[in-house]
């Protein structure tokens, strides 16, 4: 873009996706890693410069922890960065001090603090950032762990301070009897350790934060991360929670944490959400992060491009989601190629299945071999709602389970393996009134009413939503008998992913208006006809809202129209529902035209002659 | 993905973006083009294979019209494709016939037909695809053009049959006096020509269509293309038109046209929209196309990935938009580097400005030099509405105009050139009631009423929308006095990009219901109080809609609530409006709390003591 060249320590998948972003802005990237076919080098041809004495490529072939190679790379670039924090940070400081490069981002001092998890925790604690309680383990080892156990109780986490990632270097000490095995597993005294209070979290949350050299921080939406065997397995964006403050709080804590570090770049902040709604930071990575892969397809600027912009001191890009919902599934090597000749084929099964899934984008990293647990690729799914993303994810998850079983049972994949998993083969909504009908895991519409006596009037709404395949929930919320439940329902609605609330009420009919007063979402009111006044009482109670808080009121007892209105509201932004509603209207027109035909054929008295 | 290698004739920007898509799926691509630093080769490092005798790279260095080089490439790959149609199609047929590759897509026969525009038109006409009237020009040249003029009148288009693109090879013959100059300009008899009836189009439309080897065709949304000096300048997706059939018709015609060709791949179909709403095909490109660049950021699968999938006979990806609105701006070289040392800097000005624009993604192609008119890059903008995209595009267009003027006046760019163009420096909504307030070019909400006598009741709705910065339009539509206008308004609403209609009506109050009967969008009804019955007549007329067609009814005369409901409807899908509505509600709460404070301080009679 402006002629500057960036050097990266490491050329794996993070480097590869960084190179992709840099190529788009025509920023030249030189990589330091062993071999010429590492993932990032594959997509970045650096032609031989005849005037230099270097060979084929201007990349540097060698280990990113080799001090001489770091110097070699530094001499060829303007700015140095890393795709991994386990680098020789002291050497990075030296090349910076010697003026071999104009800048190193993240700062070597930041890398030094972060790569020692104990130092990282001390740093965060000093800055009043919430972390789990922790204690150092001294050379007495077992005795020191016992001291920690006296403070924290069991289970406690024993952790290696350095070179720990993807769960490697962690040990859960469940009782005093585990201590010696734990110490042994973590290097038997060769590596420095620390102890951490066990965090009985309810969810794992991550936030990517980009920091400019001048200290501006911008966070991406909070996401939920699902780990399996300590490795990131699935990511859901954005994080849903019944308390709308939780996602915002996660971003605020992540921004505060990243603001404490100098230098520029992107940071991945992993957190635990505790049962009481509190958030504590687990760890921070000073680089693009697995939990931020989804940003490539789902956000206005990807984590990789924002890292590039940050380290080049260009304006930071927008971190907003550009789609309503996204998920990311990691493709981890299912087996070693030496043990299972089909290891790669089985690992890639979800990738092949993904080609049939709308909104799925597959990234394969071009890694040479296949090892169990190795990150081989990932699949991002975007959609117009959580429900759509969840449905699109299902065939991928099922094919992954299938491939995993094929590895475990040492069976080859059947030739129709891909065809077995498609969107159409995943079950649609049940035709019976099963719980799945009205307790969808990712509802867009909530139908509520004050009492089960309103059910006969409100059920047609549920039937319509089912007919249009709209994910919804149906429950009882009474304004007068459960005011706290109503408040909780209304306040949590947007954070849970709801987009419309339909509320039915009779008589004094306060429910729709009181829900509308406590949520920013559109609320549709259905006046339910009581035994007196023909429902006019409910109608006026619902429609005559004061200026400031609207309720979208439909005809008395007409919950059908409430559901149709809810679908029209979804249709305002989702062409799928717009087309379905247009079709519904066309069908109604045709039904009437059939009756026109019938009447003209059979005569005006055809009804009485039936 | 499955070990197959693709060869591409040409390695420019289209090849570059194709390589990007292929890398993501780990499909190896070898390129045939001159030089080692062409745009596509830069992002695709093919390491030297020590066992072969070829040099540094496995790409082929040479012209894509060199038959020997085509053979050389064919021998190294499984499937051949092109990034440009001006290739040696006969040679492609030969390498296919000789079994040097498993497949060539698009088919050489398709390329042959398409690269001769006259043959292309004959082909389309034979398949009943609408095209402008055309006639061949024989060797008599001027006489033959005169014959064509007798059929078509003046002006007429004189076109070169081959090697014509970006307006090169076209000549507008305005009168008989132009003929000899036109013939001279188009090769003076060395190139074959044909004549076409002048098409006084109102818009240029393009549709990308992907075709699988088995003949499945899938079209992307129709887009509007703006050409300047015959080169694509800006693209807007999706195409908006008051007649919802036009975009669908454009897709249908494009799909029909592409279905007539054998083989697989992506096709760009350029069309003219005529004053009567008819669409005729201008030309077809058998490859990724400038009008489809927006698909990278805006669609579920990009045109490049779908081209790859098609030619490898993998399942086609979804062509749906994943964002509500997008635009693309080409970065064409503003001057030759030899004539203006700042040519590149000036050309890239909008790229630098784009870094400050949310939703903008910049692609720079890494071309070595800068020539006037050369495609150097492009910027795609996505947003939650046409209005948002248009607003984000504005600083880019202005900076482009500024850079163009700097070239024309041969002035250097000022040092603050980038800073001059930002979203915040573009004017917001005018504070006076200017036309821009209620005749927004890209409205999301339409406010209508039966008569200007309803204006006093309906204006608060406009004020609220203005306060929330929601693009809207306000006009008079009467159900009883202008039923045709009402029908037109309702039917065109979704195709014009509207998401909500607010309709105010008094007395019999048919307008909201009759609009709702003719659009699938949500319609909000405001009962306007008349001189009798206190507005209850209007309320009942609006709210008591029959099953099937809902109207969201608000309180009598309460157009404020209608606008707030409209914003809540937008908020259901756009977090920006959700946050604004929550803020509005918080502010209302605070206002009341201030009064609570005041009353408790001043006593219950403070109002009367004022």
UniProtKB/TrEMBL annotation, chains A, B:
Enzyme Commission code: 4.1.1.21
Keywords: ATP-binding, Decarboxylase, Lyase, Nucleotide-binding, Purine biosynthesis
Biased amino acid composition, Polar residues: 41-60
Swiss-Prot/TrEMBL GO biological process terms: 'de novo' IMP biosynthetic process
SMART domains: AIRC
Pathway membership: Purine metabolism; IMP biosynthesis via de novo pathway; 5-amino-1-(5-phospho-D-ribosyl)imidazole-4-carboxylate from 5-amino-1-(5-phospho-D-ribosyl)imidazole (carboxylase route): step 1/1
Domain of life: Eukaryota
Chemical reaction(s) catalysed: 5-amino-1-(5-phospho-D-ribosyl)imidazole-4-carboxylate + H(+) = 5-amino-1-(5-phospho-beta-D-ribosyl)imidazole + CO2
Domain ATP-grasp: 121-312
Pfam families per the UniProt record, alphabetical: AIRC, ATP-grasp, PurK_C, RS_preATP-grasp-like
Region (Disordered): 41-61
Enzyme class: lyase
Any one Gene Ontology molecular-function term assigned to this protein's record: metal ion binding
InterPro entries with a match to the protein in the record: Ade2_fungi/plant, ATP-grasp, ATP-grasp_carboxylate-amine, ATP_grasp_subdomain_1, PreATP-grasp_dom_sf, PurE_ClassI, PurE_dom, PurK
PANTHER family for the chain: PHOSPHORIBOSYLAMINOIMIDAZOLE CARBOXYLASE, PURINE BIOSYNTHESIS PROTEIN 6/7, PUR6/7
Similarity comment: In the C-terminal section; belongs to the AIR carboxylase family. Class I subfamily.
NCBIfam families: PRK06019.1-5, purE, purK
Identification of the protein by name: Phosphoribosylaminoimidazole carboxylase
């Amino acid at each position: 873009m402006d002629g500057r060249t960036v050097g990266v320590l490491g050329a794996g998948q993070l480097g590869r996706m960084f190179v992709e972003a840099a190529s788009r802005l025509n920023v030249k990237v030189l990589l330091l890693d062993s071999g010429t076919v590492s993932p990032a080098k594959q997509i970045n041809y650096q032609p031989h410069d005849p005037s230099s004495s270097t060979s084929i490529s201007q990349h540097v072939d060698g280990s990113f922890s080799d001090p001489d190679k770091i110097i070699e790379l530094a001499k060829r670039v303007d700015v140095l960065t890393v795709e991994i924090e386990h680098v020789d940070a002291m050497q990075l400081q030296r090349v910076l001090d010697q003026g071999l490069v104009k800048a190193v981002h993240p700062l070597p001092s930041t890398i030094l603090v972060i790569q020692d998890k104990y130092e990282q925790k001390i740093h965060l604690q000093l800055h009043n950032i919430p972390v789990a309680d922790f204690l150092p383990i001294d050379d007495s080892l077992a005795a020191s762990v016992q001291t920690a156990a006296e403070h924290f109780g069991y289970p406690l986490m024993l952790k290696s301070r350095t070179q720990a990632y993807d769960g490697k270097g962690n040990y859960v000490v469940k009782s005093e009897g585990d201590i010696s095995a734990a110490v042994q597993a973590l290097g038997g005294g060769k590596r420095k350790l620390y102890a951490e209070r066990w965090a009985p979290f309810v969810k794992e949350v991550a936030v990517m934060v980009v920091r400019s050299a001048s200290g501006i921080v911008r966070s991406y939406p909070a996401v939920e991360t699902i780990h399996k065997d300590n490795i990131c397995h699935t990511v859901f964006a954005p994080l849903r929670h019944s308390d709308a403050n939780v996602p915002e709080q996660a971003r605020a804590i992540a921004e505060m944490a990243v603001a404490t570090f100098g230098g520029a770049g992107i940071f991945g902040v992993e957190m635990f959400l505790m049962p009481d709604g509190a958030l504590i930071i687990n760890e921070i990575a000073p680089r693009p992060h697995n939990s931020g892969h989804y940003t490539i397809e789902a956000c206005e600027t990807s984590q990789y491009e924002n890292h590039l912009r940050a380290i080049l001191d260009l304006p930071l890009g927008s971190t907003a989601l550009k789609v309503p919902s996204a998920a990311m599934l990691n493709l981890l090597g299912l087996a070693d190629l030496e043990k299972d000749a089909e290891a790669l084929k089985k690992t890639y099964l979800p990738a092949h299945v993904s080609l049939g899934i709308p909104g799925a984008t597959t990234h394969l990293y071009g890694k040479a071999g296949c090892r169990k647990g190795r990150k081989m690729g990932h699949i991002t799914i975007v959609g117009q709602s959580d429900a759509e993303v969840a449905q699109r994810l299902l065939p991928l998850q099922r094919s992954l389970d299938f491939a995993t079983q094929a590895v475990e049972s040492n069976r080859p994949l059947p030739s129709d393996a891909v065809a077995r998993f498609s969107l159409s083969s995943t079950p649609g909504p049940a035709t019976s009134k099963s719980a799945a009908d009205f307790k969808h895991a990712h509802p867009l519409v909530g139908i509520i009413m004050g009492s089960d006596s309103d059910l006969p009037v409100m059920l047609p709404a549920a039937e319509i939503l089912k007919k249009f395949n709209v994910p919804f929930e149906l429950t009882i919320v009474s304004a007068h008998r459960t005011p706290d439940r109503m408040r909780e329902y209304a306040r949590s609605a947007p954070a849970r992913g709801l987009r419309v609330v339909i509320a039915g009420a009779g008589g004094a009919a306060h429910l729709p208006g009181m829900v509308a007063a406590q949520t920013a979402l559109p609320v549709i009111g259905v006046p339910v006809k009581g035994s007196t006044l023909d429902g006019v009482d409910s109608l006026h109670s619902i429609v005559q809202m004061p200026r400031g808080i609207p309720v979208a009121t439909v005809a008395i007892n007409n919950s059908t129209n409430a559901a149709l209105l809810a679908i029209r509201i979804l249709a305002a932004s989702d062409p799928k529902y717009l087309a379905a509603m247009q079709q519904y209207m066309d069908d109604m027109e045709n039904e009437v035209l059939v009756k026109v035909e019938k009447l003209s054929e059979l005569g005006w008295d055809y009804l009485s002659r039936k």
